[in-house]
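Problem 12. The chain below contains 193 residues. Write out its predicted structure in token notation.
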Amino acid sequence: MPLPQRAFYTVQEAALRLDCTLGGLAGWAATGRLEIVTAIPPVIQGGHVYAGFVAVPVSDIMYLFWGGSEVATLRRFRPIEAEDWVLIESNADFVEVCLSRLMIAAEEMQRFEATNGLTRRVNSGAPSRHDWEGVMAYLIRRVHVEGVPATQGEWIAIAQDWFAQNSEGGEIPDESTIRRKLGPIWKELQETV
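Solution.
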């Protein structure tokens, strides 16, 4: 039995899915084109208890997306499907968030993709010219054993070497294709180092 459709994407997964930077994603969210959410513990404001998933004012925490900090403090939030922001009055109730706790609901991702003509391509079943799954498996094992390469150039060179040794006739994808497909993964690994 297949798993149900996922409920959320992390902002990192969304950036990879949309083939954009975290800063680009934050820009769309800050201008109201995309809603980013997080889960908060119970907060009492104005006699109401707020908890669970809330919309995040991305313009207040843009520095998180630019790599300026690992943690940001939410001083306001918007309950899902509400129009008004709730200001957190007490410093003791401020909520700390990091990139890994910021998400986009699957329905919101689908709406954004449809609105902007970014429909997902369905694989026609034609085999890929290059073994991307094979190189990914190798890179995962290599990172596990030897750690993340120091530079993106080294990351690309390792992939090129793998293709040269494992492709029929030693056929290697061009560097720009490797960089486009594997560069976001290297950048994501740099954020977790």
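Discussion. Residues 175-192 form the longest helix (18 residues). Students who got a different answer should revisit the alignment rule from Section 12.3.
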